[in-house]
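Our platform keeps sequence and structure together, in a single record for each protein. Such a record has a labelled line for the sequence and another for the backbone structure tokens. This encoding replaces a full spatial description with a residue-level series of whole-number codes. Below, we set out a record of this kind in full and without editing:
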Amino acid sequence: MEYIQLGNSDLKVSRVCLGCMGFGDATQGMHSWTLPYEESEKIIKYALDSGINFFDTAMAYQSGTSEKYLGKALKKYAKREDIVIATKFTPKHTDNTYQYIEECLNNSLKRLDVDYIDLYIMHMWDDETPIEKTMEALNKFVKQGKVKYIGISNCFAYQLAKANMIARMHGWAEFVSVQNHFNLIFREEEREMAKLCNEDNIAMAPYSALASGRLAKHPGDTSKRMQEDSYAKGKYDQTADQDLIIIKRVEELADKHNVSMSEISLAWLLTKVASPVVGATKFSHIDTAIKAVDIQLSDEEITYLEELYQPHKLVGVMANKN
């Protein structure tokens, strides 16, 4: 496993981050395909044994049970100082921003059973709350030692730039990472976000690295998640025809290199970002993600994968942010 410094932080993270949205009580959230604790624990231990030290979850994942499962497994198999835990809070407009975020943070600390969060991420931009209030509150938690660094997810480049400019003006903690929607069949982050992150050394650690399985499976193949994940269907079904052309090229290069489609898709993404968030509900998902780190695509192959991409409308959380 390779490791990388996460943006403007001293966090040394594996080139693959284990996304933990697939762990949690399937009866307590929006996903019906998540793993119970016993199976989640096995996946988390396998990731640790494979060299992954970066784990991402959220208070919103299966009503907090993802955090509980992750914390319990890490407590059993890892030393706290050897791992990097990222979790996310869901912003909400309130009269007391500090008090609300403090409650979210304390609840996450309790569920994870840790004293601090390495990377505390604002799950999406809050259009109602002045960003000054949020940045001031987050800075206080960094000063208290409850949080090492802060990050953001689901925002526009100008919003990230604005937030960090305000933080810099006040001497507050800045966002060191952005967790955005970015993969081979959804590349809208290349317009501005990727340029900003490159110039300011902000780490990109995108979610949906394999487009909810679409970049991992041969055309026509399916899975329980692809059948039941209505949220992912909303993100990808409308562009399925134009995306299929690219997916077929992934399949072609996978055959050429005698590797899986996941490995090709992730190898491409690893040329663009610091540490993609890769969900895993099987040992094989971790194996392929780790193998992708060692695959070197040629410039010609990268162009071959990219050249047929067509602009996409924003989807998911960002769909209503235009």
